[in-house]
Every structure is written in structure tokens, then in C-alpha cells.
């Protein structure tokens, strides 16, 4: 290691971990990063950072990096190291062979929320222009797809309404199904600052997260609801607001569709949505529900922040719309301190969705069925586009098992570890005739691959990320790609091998094309990003400096639309055989499947996934802290060590999925959101018993 202070040059770039999108300055000597210093001029972080961004970047040069392309004819055959040209030619010929044999729709691709906007744009372009179908999806499918759907239905734009700084103007902050101090630490600090200044905090979460327990911050109002009952809770909050005359009638009359509001008002007033009835569903007292509703509706500025505890449910989209309903009803939209704010998990979840990674939408959330939109892309790309929506990720797996889907190009995503019901995913991957995996490490999904293309870390490429506040920030190359190609170059070469016209010389040219074809990005260019530091979309003639806060005068869709949000209980029931509910999440020092953080010193702090269990449930089963336990669900079984914790409520257990050997997703089921197929990671009925060390 080179001591800090010996750096020869510095490069401003953006953290590649969470959706906060902190700016960093990489200090470099030769080709080696000496340290990462939080950028004081970073638009999202103003000089702050967390342990992941500051210390967990050494994975970029970890010996596990795969830097040479590889191919094998079957998943039982040994890998052969080959040249880029041979690997790409083999992949292209296999995709064409599959399409000739099984049809145009038998192949597709998956983009990554870890990669840049430019890279995800190229992958969806390759699928649409090269494969001739819309079988492209993003790993956002399994996290925030309900946000995209729910906010578009109600507000008209598939994105959060506010910049992070807005929280400093909030009087009441409601955090639902999010754990900002672990998942979005720099924003979590901003939120805690506001709470210390005197804002009220309401936490709606099954677990006593840090915000409930931290001294001087502790939420006065913790609504510890049962997992799976979010929609009942939001309806009860709405019931109180309507029944007690707390609606902002002037805002609703001016800004929202009157018929939809009337239908919603009638719905929420039904007895089934009363706090007394909902208390029996959620386990939260009617008084606590009433108090929270009055507090939020009565605030000068009430802001809602939410995370995957909202989206990863069978009613994830319904809950997102319920949150938007509540914000519109109370007039908490369109100014600092308010809004509906999804805390995006990965660094570029927002961007991968913006870039047309969904099978029904081209870049800018415009339907593939819209002929005028297609024509614009067709004119630029020189192809004819398919007007039919393609397959979502779970549909790809189902089609693979059914035998109609045979080839897939996966960039920077590890479905075999991160997607639910691992057995089903593995069966689908095993049935493919050509799986191309592009990643920086040989991940779990690569075990089923026929072609492995080495990926590039964020330090090895130029591009942009878009964070949870729609902030587009530059990623700048710090060192040359270890494999010789950045991801966008590999995708371009694969597209060329498929006969697609692509000849970008630099990612800035890709952004220029995005801007030309996507109205909300029309004012974005690398020159403008370099001059401004970052830009928040929409950024165009109507808003040349970008848009920190949306929906200020009117909603993107014109009038806001209330949606009736009926509570439909999940089909994942607890029974005598499976009496506990398992819910999953993340911890501060690790990151998702851990491919990066597990290869850094962060592992020293948290080196394994554990099962958190309430003392009563542990005592019932004779389980002590640190014991190995056996976890069984309808989908599968695994073993973990237990952590007995009063953070849990009785009847609910919790774990993370940072380590592949923990098998958390072996037990999660393939239940999913009714609108988007986002998996129901947050509710799995399980039994837990004392077990042997595996
Ligand atoms: Fe990176 Fe998120 Fe930490 Fe910022 S808060 S340093 S973006 S992981």
C-alpha cells in the first residue's frame, strides 16, 4: 500500500455503492488508488461519506478479479480462456443460432443498477436493436419496480419528488420500510440532524431499526406493524385524516382529479379501514395509528421516505400508491420539506430504470407501444422496433423452464444469489443454451454461464450514475480497465458482432444520444455535468438548471390521481408448521450480495449473515445467542447462526443475504407484487429450530 499523501493525481468520481451517490475524490499514484476522500463539492454528500464508500473500494484490484474472457460449450465443460474477439463472436453466433432454432423471442438481456447510465442504455439498445424484441429487464425489478409503477400512476413520474436537502425543511418525517442509517448512511445522517433540530419522527417498520433506538434521535412514534400489513396501515392513516377533516381541501381541489379523490375518500372511510379494525391486522394500537396520522397531516411540512420494506411485497405497488395518496391528501407535495421519497438501494437504480431497462418502456419511461416514441428511436438506430412488451426477469425464468427462452446476456447482476427461490432460478439458468455473464467477479450466476466477459469496476470507466434524488453525477476513469475493455466497450463489441450499428468513441457520445431521444435528459451533456458538478432531471429547456423538487406547480401527469388501495393479505400465511415470518434486509458495512464488500476489510466488522430472533421465540426453541439454527420455508431450507435480539417483535425473524453460503434466498418464495413481479422478500413463513453447523 502507498501511504496517503503520496498521490500524484486526483480524480473526482461517484461512489458505486448506494443510491445516495456521494461524490469522492480518488487520490491516485500510478495506477493505484491511495485513498478515497469525500468530495466537499459533492451535490449529494457535501463532504460526508460512510464506511463503504470511504474504505470498501479495494475490491477493484482484488485477486479474485477475472480479467480474461472465457467460454465453454456446456456448463459441465472446463472453461477456456479466449480473446475478446473469440468470446464475443461465440456469444453472437450462439444467440443467432438460438433465435434461428427457437424464434426471435428466445433470447434477452438483463441490465445492472451497478453499471452506468450509458452502459444500461447500450444493453437495452442491444436487446431491442440486436435481438429484435423487448426482453430486457433490470435488477430494479427485484427492488424498486413498484416505485416506478406506483408513482407514475399517481403523480405521473417514476421517481422521487425531492432532493435530499429537502429533509432539513421537514417538520414531521415518516420513514416506512427503510433503514437509512444502514442502507443510505449519508442521507441517514442528514435525517438525524433534522430530528435533533426538533422535527418529529415516525417509523413504520416491523423492526426497531437504529432510528428507533439512537439516543437523541429515537423515534417517538414507532409503529411496529406485522410484515405484510403495510397497505392496511396506510389505509388506516388515510381513514383518520379524512374522518377528522385533516385533508388539505384547497390543494386537492386545485391539483388532483376530483372523481378519483371522491372514490378514494369514500373507500378510506369504510369501517374496514378504521384504526380499530386495522389494529387487529397490523398489531399496532388504534391510538398509535391516530396519533401518527394527526402528526403527519398536521405538520407544516410532512415528508415520507420509504425503502424496500414498502416495495418488496405482494402489494408493493399498492403501498407506493397509498403513500402518494396520503401526500396528495395532505398537500405534502411540491415544495421543500415534503414529498414522496423512495430511497433507492443501488447506486444507479434510478438510472437503470430511466434508461429504458424495462420490457414495456423505452428510455424516459415511454411505452414501447407508442408508435411516435418508437419512430424516434427507429430513426436514430436504423431498425424496426417491436411494439410488444417483452419478458420480465421472473417471466424469463419461467419461460426458460418451459423451454421457450434459451439465451441471456446478463451484465453485472447475480440472480442466482439475489433473486428469490434460488432452486427455481438455478433450474432456469441450467436450462439455457447460452448464458453470457459480464461481471467483475466469477459470481454465483456465472456457474451456469457459457461465456464469461470480464467486467470493469467503477474506477475503470467513464460514465454517469443517477441517484435517488434524480441527480446525474459523473463517474470518471481512475485507472485503465484490467480486462482491456470497459463494460460499455464490451457491450458495443457484442452488439457489433450481432450486426448492430454502434460506434461510440466515448460514453459522452452515448449520453448525447440519450439526451437527443429522452426529453427529461435533453439538457444533459458531459460538458454541462462537468461545469455544474451534477444535474437533477428533468433537465431540459423548461428546466435548464435541473429540477431538485418536482411537481411544484402541477403534477407531471397534470392532475394528481388518487388510487383506491384495497388491502389484500399476502397468500404467504403463517401456519403451525411455519409459524414465524422471515423478513430480510441489509447491514451498514456490507452491500447486497457482498461481491464487493466481502472482498474488502469491511468483512472484519461483519463476517457472516445471522438470523435475528426475539428472546421469547428463541427461548421457546431452546436457542441461545450464537447457536446454529435450521430455517425451513415452503421453498427450501438453510442454516445460520442466531442473534437473539429485542429489535425483533415476537413472531418475526430477520436476516441479510450478503454471504452466498447463508442461503437466505433459498428460503424466500417466488410470491411477487401483483403489478410488477417485484419479489415478496419481506414475508416468508418459516420454522426455526436448533440446528447443526453446516
Ligand atoms: Fe457510498 Fe452510499 Fe456510503 Fe455515500 S452513503 S459513501 S453513496 S455507500
- Sheet-strand content, in percent, reads 15-25%
Q: How would you sum up the global shape? A: globular
Assign the CATH class of the largest domain.
Alpha Beta
Name the helicity range.
25-40%
Residue windows where pLDDT falls under 50 for at least 5 positions: none
Protein name: NAD-dependent formate dehydrogenase subunit alpha
Organism: Zoogloea oryzae
Family: Belongs to the complex I 75 kDa subunit family.
Keywords: 2Fe-2S, 4Fe-4S, Iron, Iron-sulfur, Metal-binding, Oxidoreductase, Repeat
Description:
- The radius of gyration is 24 Å and the shape is globular.
- Helix 3 crosses helix 21 (507-517) and helix 17 crosses helix 19.
- Helices cover 32% and strands 17% of the residues.
- The strands form 6 sheets. It has a 7-stranded mixed β-sheet with strand order 5-4-17-16-15-6-7, covered by helices on one side.
- It folds into 4 domains: 9-61, Single Sheet (N-terminal domain of TfIIb); 70-140 and 349-536, Rossmann fold (3-Layer(aba) Sandwich); 145-342, Dimethylsulfoxide Reductase, domain 2 (3-Layer(aba) Sandwich); 580-690, Beta Barrel (Barwin-like endoglucanases), CATH 2.40.40.
- With 694 residues, the protein is an alpha/beta fold.
Short structural description:
The protein has 694 residues and is an alpha/beta fold.
Structural descriptors:
694 residues, alpha/beta, N-terminal domain of TfIIb, Rossmann fold, Dimethylsulfoxide Reductase, domain 2, six-stranded mixed beta sheet, 32% helix, globular, binds iron/sulfur cluster
Blueprint (SSEs and pairs):
Elements: E1 9-14, E2 23-29, E3 32-38, H1 51-55, E4 70-71, E5 80-81, H2 84-102, E6 107-111, H3 117-131, E7 136-138, H4 145-154, E8 172-176, H5 180-183, H6 185-196, E9 200-204, H7 210-213, E10 221-223, H8 230-243, H9 249-255, H10 258-268, H11 275-282, H12 286-298, E11 302-306, H13 308-311, H14 316-329, E12 340-342, H15 349-354, E13 361-362, E14 366-367, H16 371-381, H17 393-402, E15 407-411, H18 415-418, H19 422-430, E16 434-439, E17 451-454, E18 463-466, E19 471-475, H20 487-497, H21 507-517, H22 526-532, E20 534-536, E21 580-585, E22 610-613, H23 615-620, E23 628-633, E24 637-644, E25 652-656, H24 664-667, E26 684-690
Parallel strand pairs: 6-7, 6-15, 8-9, 8-11, 9-10, 11-12, 15-16, 16-17, 21-25, 22-24
Antiparallel strand pairs: 1-2, 2-3, 4-5, 4-17, 13-14, 18-19, 19-20, 21-26, 23-24, 23-26
The site of iron/sulfur cluster (SF4) has 14 residues, from helix 1 and helix 6.
